[in-house]
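Exercise: predict the fold of this chain.
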Amino acid sequence: MSLYLDNAATSYPKPESVYEAVSTALREVGVSPGRGGYRRGLEATRLLFETREAAASLFGIGDSSRVVFTHSATESLNLAVLGLIRSGDHVITTSAEHNSLVRPLHLAGQRGAEITWVEADRRGIVTPDQIAAAMRPSTRLVALAHCSNVTGAIQPVGDIAAVARRAGALVLVDAAQSAGMIPIDAPAMGIDLLAVPGHKGLMGPQGTGVLYVADGVELEPLIVGGTGGYSSGMEQPDAMPERFESGTHNLPGIAGLGAGIDFIRTVGLEVIRQREENLVARLLEGLAAMPGVTCHGPLPGEPRGSLVSFTADGTDPQAIGFRLDQEFDICVRVGLHCAPAAHRTIGTYPGGTVRVSPGYFTKDEEIDAFLMAMRTILGAK
């Protein structure tokens, strides 16, 4: 039986209720929300609204109309950056970012914005003082990941947001590795724009995502078109969230996302976090006992997301991943993880690392099976 340890990429398996919600939306509703006043159309609209409300509640958002559905955190980040930043604006980010944020920022730079890349330490962390030192009068945005997809380092987002607030800058947070595992109250933390994937910690299907846009933050849409209402004019409507939701919604995916959020709220975010922390601690302890293995990122006992990146002296991460798959049917992620600057920061470029990311449904004995496989691989060098 295959052992899946790549939940940082996509959580698997999903709660059974997620599969059921997707099937029900396809089989029993089957129509587009906001496109018809008949009963099925109203049921589709209700599903959309309930998931929007659930997402807003999970992230401390009082007005669910500020929650925009996207197809991924990548789309959310593109909308946040390219919908906000103009030529002459200054943006502060870090060397620990995923390409889903790096590339929109690079494109904004090509269009005339100025981007400052603050260097993270070897754990992947930046300090509020570093952000403050990079501030300029033209700084419009501070953009960073809450939790690194390479090291698992958790940034002090609240403290960084306070620095940005004092300087009059907005804050964009990439919550790809934290949403569903680490509590996030976006307004209380000072987050103006929050990008979230549906298919990772929120346990929803692929092709789902969310962008929170704080009240008063004005963005230009990336896509315009039919919104199900405001049909009489050629201009894109200003109303939220329709302004950013042109085209037919992925209703089966959004229904599944709603079921994933309901599962999290039923089990309890702290229960999920504690379970994943225990699995990560088991991983770190087992890997630390292997000669020549280096675990990158926060030190044991420091806050960390639900992943471990490691290297082994004299062994290519690609070779380790290949053997884990071919000989043991264990799925891990190897290489640069779409974050080359983060690997340069921690000294693992260009070879990258082996990344192991358990999830809530991972069993202790599965971690033990992975560690046994690693001992076999390293012992056979």
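Check your answer against the key: The radius of gyration is 21 Å.
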